[in-house]
Specification:
The chain has 426 residues and is α+β, with helices and mostly antiparallel strands. It has 3 domains: 4-146, no CATH class; 165-274; 276-425, Heat Shock Protein 90 (2-Layer Sandwich). 66% of the residues lie in helices and 13% in strands. The strands form 2 sheets. Strands 4-5-6-8-7 form a 5-stranded mixed sheet. It is rod-shaped, with a radius of gyration of 52 Å.
Amino acid sequence: MGDLRRRLTWHLAGFHAALIAVVLAVSALNLRADAAEEVRAADQLAALLAAAAAVERHDGAAERATLAAVLAEARPRHLALRLLPADAAVEPGAHRLPAGRQMLLLSPDDSGERDEKRRDALRLLLPLLAVSLATVLAARLAVGRALLPVRGLVDGLARLERGERAAVLPQFALPEFAQVAAAVDRLAAHLDRARAAERQLARRLIASQEEERRALARELHDEFGQSLTAIGLAAGFVARHPAAGPLRMTECAQEIGAELRRIHGHLRSLLTSLRPHGLEGVALGDALAELLDGYARRGLALERRLPAQLPPLDAPAALALFRLVQEALTNVLRHADATRASVRLALVDGGIEIEVADDGSGSAARLLAAPGCGLTGMRERLAMAGGRLTLLDAAPRGVRVIGWLPLERAPRCASAGAAAAAGAAA
């Protein structure tokens, strides 16, 4: 079938060939008419000259009548003919032809030439106008027919916009539209996968939220409930036995203090897991060190390359960086089957870069092909703080999770981070 340009070229070339054929045919007819007019005028002039010569030889009534009749019908080209008395005055430039007691006066006349030029111009202009109009109409028709498949593409995109899973496009003969249709089909498949991932992520977020709530409820019930019960028993004993003696009162006070310290430590651990306190500024280094100590106590061999002093970061950026390290190390412990991990923090390209690497069995390509809730959360947190996330393969094995955050963020990003922090605080 050919591509769109070739088809349009052939259509327009064929149409113009037909127009040229019509113009040539009209021009041939005009030339034929002009030649016939020239022959007729020459014949009439010859007949007029013969009639004038006959009158000059035989000045009879019949010859004069013939001359008058021929003169009345003659339409010579570029000449004005008049029959005057033989002694009539003649204007300069005219030619006399004797005809007995009369003369035939021939003078140049350009009115016929002007009429002929106007007629020729009109004959040329009308075909040109016809060709121009026909060309515009042909181009409009050809382009309209060639772009007719666009309606199918628009309908398919509208179906995607309404939320349908596929564009359901027709088969296109032209390769250009077939390529666009294939691209739309790929876009539809990608959009369907993205929507499915979004739904799955939403379900995971809801499940994770419910699991966190259940875990928090268990912690509160098991840990705080037991401690508060012990404190209540000790306080009740003191209230019921005011004369129990200093030693017993001291034991009750020590027991209450121990339970309070236990509650305080457990509460601090819960708050750290939910939202670390005091991440802004230099406190981020202490929070990271405490976090890494916790993972080291859980049996993970950690190599730390952290600067002694960190540059100040606002709350959204510091929390995004902290969560990246927390989520990456959690994934290393749960899924990577790694023996060692490293955490590196450095200043790169006007920002702060944090890298968590392991020697496990993971692959950056597999993680990017099917990102989980944790990876998506890391990317979104960094994006909200104006940063970016990169996943690379480590050598000789394992994965490198690299996050970068700017030290000086644009006002728009800063305002968005402040709004997010205010929303979280609310």
